[in-house]
C-alpha cells in the first residue's frame, strides 16, 4: 500500500465556507490530476488546478448570496462534472469551464440548507429547515414536512435500488426514509445526524448502505432496505472529539479498498480502513486548527500521488499527500530536503514577506487616513461559527466559538449561576471578575485571553435545573478597528434534559396536568421555553408527545400536550415542581387562566434517591481521598517510603494525579448533588402544602453520613 498521507501542497484561501461546499471534478482526458471547485459564503465559486506546485485559477464567479451547498452532477454514464450550488432559495448550475447553464428559483420561502443532486442529473433534492422538496427537471414532484430540523439529505442510487428513496438526517436523532411524499419509516441513531454519505460513494453492492455522522462525534452505517433499516456498525466517540461535518470514501492507502475519510468540527481529520469485513479501524488522524467543512480524496497536486483535500471554516484548503518527502545525504551528515521541497519553502517565505510588507503599508495608510477630518471608520464585518450543545456523558454544555480571523479575547457573562469547567484543548488564559448578583443579575463574568493565531475556542459550563436565564459571549477578534460581536445562549429551566426516543414506563411517575384556554402553538412555545432540543416550529397534527432524560441523574420526563390540555409525567418530583412554576408564570404573562392538578407518587421519591445515592457516595469518597493527598505526600517525604501505610492509603498516593485531575474537572459536583437532594426534600413537601426549610440543616447532617437507608427514612419520617 501507498504511504500514509503527509502534509501536501498549500492551496489558496477562499471566503468562509459552509459544510459540503468543496468537490473535486473528475480527471479529464490524458491529465490525471483533478480540478478543485469550492463555494464560499461571499457567494463566490472558485475552480482551480495545480501546475508545478502553484494554484492556477480556471474560473471564479462574482460575489452573491451565501453558498450553502455545492454538488456535482451530470447525465447517466457520463462524467459528473456539472457544478450545482444552492444559494438562498435558488439553485445554479455551471459547467466545468464556469459557464452558467441553470438558474432555478425554487418555491421555497426559506433558504436552502441541504441539497443532493442525483447521478441522473435530472433529480434535485432540496431541504430548508423543516421542508423537503423533490424536483425532476425543475418541476415539483414531492413534498414532506419534517418533525424537526433537516441537517442533510441524500437519495439511494436508482440504478441499484430501482426506485427513488430519499433519506433525511434530522436533528431529533432520526433518519427519515421517504417514498414519494410519504414517510416510509424512521431510523433511530445515537446522536443528532449532521451528515450523510453513500457507503463507498455508491451505496455498496446493494446501493442501500448509508454512512452517517453525528454532532456528538459518532459514526455509523445503516442499510436502508425497502421495508426496514439494518444497522451494520457504529463507532462511538471515546476520545471526545468534535462533531462530524463531512465524510468521503476514497482508496488513499492504495490497497484496493476504499477508506472512509472523516472531517470533524474540532479540526481532526480521520482515515478509517476496513481491515476486517465488518467494523472500520482508525488508521490515521491529523489535527488542523479549524473545523473541517469538506473532505475529498483524489489526485490534485501531482500526477500519480493521491491526496486528501480538506477545506476549513475560514476558507483554507489543505492537502495531505501520499508523495514521499525525499531526503538527501548519508549517515553522519545532516539530512537535507530535496531541491523541489527547498524551492517550495523558499517560495512560501517570499510570499509571506511580501504579505507582511503589504500589511504594514495598508496599516500605515489606515493610520494616516484616520487623522483626516473627513475619514469615516467603518466597523469590519466578521463571521462567527458557534455551537452550544448539551453533552450526555458529563451533563455539561459545550460552547464552541470559531472566528474567521484570530480571536483576541472572549468575555463570558451569565445572569444565572453556572460553573465553568476545565477543557483540555483550551489554551486561553481565563480570569474571573467579581460581580454583584443583586442589582445587575450578574452571576458570572470571565474573560478568556487567547494566544496568537487562535481561531477556535471551546468552553464548558454546567447549569442548575430550575434556574434559567441567558449566557452571553462577547467575541473580540484581532482586527482593527477593535470591534465585538455578542452571542446569546438560553439556559432553560430543565437545561440538563435531553431528548430520547423512549422511556421506562414501569418507573413510579408523578403527573402534572394543565387545562385552560390556550392554543396548541401557545403550549408548544412554553415547552420550547422550558426544555432543550424541542423544535421551535409547532408540530403538525392535533397533539404531540416528547420524551426526555436528565443527563445528570438519569430521571425521565414524558410530555404530551394538545390545544387546551397538557400532561407531564416524571419520576423526579423536582422536575414536576420546576415545570409547574415556570408554566404558571408563562401563562400568567399571557393572562391565561390555568387549571393545574397533580398526582404525586410517594414511591418516586425513594426511587430518585436510589438513583442519586451512588453518585453522592462516589463524590464524597473522591473528596475525602483528595483531602488526604497533601498529608500522605508529606508523610512520604518525611519517612522516605510508604510501605508502612495501609494498602488503601498507598493506592491514594499512586492515583493522586488522576484523583486531582478528576476533582478539578468536576468543581462543585458534590454541592450540586446536595442541592438536588435538598430540592427533592423541599418539593416533596411543597406539594403537600408543608414548608420544611427549617429542617434542611438536619438533612445536610444526614447527607454527610451518606447512609442511603437513613436518608430514605428521614424523607419518610418528616
TrEMBL record:
Pfam families hit by this protein: BBS7_GAE (PF23360), BBS7_hp (PF23349), BBS7_pf (PF23361), Beta-prop_BBS7 (PF23743)
GO biological process: intracellular protein localization; non-motile cilium assembly
InterPro entries per the UniProt record, alphabetical: Bardet-Biedl_syndrome_7_prot, BBS7_GAE_dom, BBS7_hairpin, BBS7_pf_dom, Beta-prop_BBS7, WD40_repeat_dom_sf
Keyword NADP on entry: no
Stretches assigned to the BBS7 beta-propeller domain: 22-322
Domain of life: Eukaryota
The entry's keywords: Coiled coil
Coiled-coil residues: 338-365
Domain BBS7 GAE intervals: 380-489
Domain called BBS7 platform: residue spans: 497-599
PANTHER family: BARDET-BIEDL SYNDROME 7 PROTEIN
Protein name: BBS7 protein
Gene that produces this protein: Bbs7
